[in-house]
C-alpha cells in the first residue's frame, strides 16, 4: 500500500467519521453550556457527585473521578475549580482525616439543574437537527456501525 493509499484509507476510516461527528457534537454542547459558565466535564463531575451524595455516606475525589469516568488528576483540577466557584464543599473525611470528602452544595445543585435542562434540550434538538452536513455525518456513522 502506498503512502497516498494509506492516507486515503485514514481519511475515509470509521474513526475519522466518528471523530467529525463527535467534534461537531462537542462544539455545539460547549456553546450551550458556556451560557451558564460550565464545561461538559464539570457537569459530569457535578452529576457524579450529586448521585454519589444520594447513595454514599462519604464521597471522595477518587469516587467522583471513577463515577464521572474521568482521570483522577483531571477530576482534581475540575473539583478545585468547582469548589472555588462555590458549587461544592470540601471537608475532612471521617474515615481518613487526610482525605477530603466532597458534597455538592445548594449553588452546585442549582447550577447542575440548569445544566441538565440545557443538556436535555440539546440532546433532543441535536439528534433531530435538519442541518444537512450533520445529518450526513450521522448517517455515515450509522451506516458504518
Topology:
Blueprint: H1 3-11, H2 14-34, H3 40-55, H4 61-68, H5 72-84, E1 88-92, E2 100-104, H6 106-128, H7 132-144
Antiparallel strand pairs: 1-2
Walk me through this protein's architecture.
This protein is mainly alpha-helical and 145 residues long. It has one domain (16-144): Arc Repressor Mutant, subunit A. It is built from 7 helices and 2 strands, in the order H-H-H-H-H-E-E-H-H. It has helices at 3-11, 14-34, 40-55, 61-68, 72-84, 106-128, 132-144; strands at 88-92, 100-104. It has a two-stranded antiparallel ribbon. A hairpin with a 7-residue loop joins strand 1 and strand 2. It starts with a helix and ends with a helix. The mean pLDDT is 91.
